[in-house]
């Protein structure tokens, strides 16, 4: 059974930092394109950061320079380091693993709230 388990969310003040983790079981993350998505209330889910084969990465424009996605193959875990957080970063953050339309998994989500 495949599981993606996110952790590291919470309440942080504007300008603060959080590191999200996505630990996988049942699949080898290095074989997948990995992404962090977020969904704020009343808004569509959006791709925040992705990491692909060869460690190529891409980012949503609004988080470039503030967020960093990395992968630790030995721990089978993907991370999202979030710095200089803003209230508009408040959302539920989801981990996603994709290899094909039939080999596609989501985590349960972790809440990130940026507020003073």
| Approximate helicity band | under 10%
For the record, give the distance between the C-alpha atoms at the N and C termini, rounded to a whole number: 40 Å
Rounded mean pLDDT is 96
- What share of the residues does DSSP label as strand, in percent? over 45%
Radius of gyration: 13 Å
- Which descriptor suits the 3D outline? globular
Q: Which regions have little confidence, pLDDT < 50, spanning 5+ residues?
A: none
Task: Please tell me about this protein's structure.
The chain has no helices and eleven strands. Strands 2, 4, 5, 6, 9, 10 and 11 form a seven-stranded mixed beta sheet that branches. β5 and β6 form a beta hairpin. It is globular.
Helix/strand layout:
Blueprint: E1 3-7, E2 10-12, E3 18-25, E4 33-39, E5 46-51, E6 57-59, E7 67-72, E8 77-82, E9 91-100, E10 103-106, E11 110-114
Parallel strand pairs: 2-11
Antiparallel strand pairs: 1-3, 3-8, 4-5, 4-9, 5-6, 7-8, 9-10, 9-11
Write a concise keyword list for the protein shown above.
mainly beta, 116 residues, single chain, four-stranded antiparallel β-sheet, 11 strands
Give a short summary of the structure.
With 116 residues, the protein is mostly beta strands. The chain has no helices and 11 strands.
């Amino acid at each position: 059974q495949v599981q993606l388990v996110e952790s590291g969310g919470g309440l942080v003040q504007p300008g603060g930092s959080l590191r999200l983790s996505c630990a996988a079981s049942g699949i080898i993350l290095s074989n997948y394109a990995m992404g962090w998505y977020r969904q704020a209330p009343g808004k569509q889910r959006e791709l925040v950061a992705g990491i692909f084969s060869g460690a190529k990465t891409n980012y949503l424009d609004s988080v470039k320079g503030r967020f960093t996605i990395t992968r630790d193959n030995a721990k089978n875990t993907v991370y999202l380091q979030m710095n200089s957080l803003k209230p508009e970063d408040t959302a539920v953050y989801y981990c996603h693993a994709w290899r094909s339309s039939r080999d596609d998994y989501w985590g349960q989500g972790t809440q990130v709230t940026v507020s003073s």
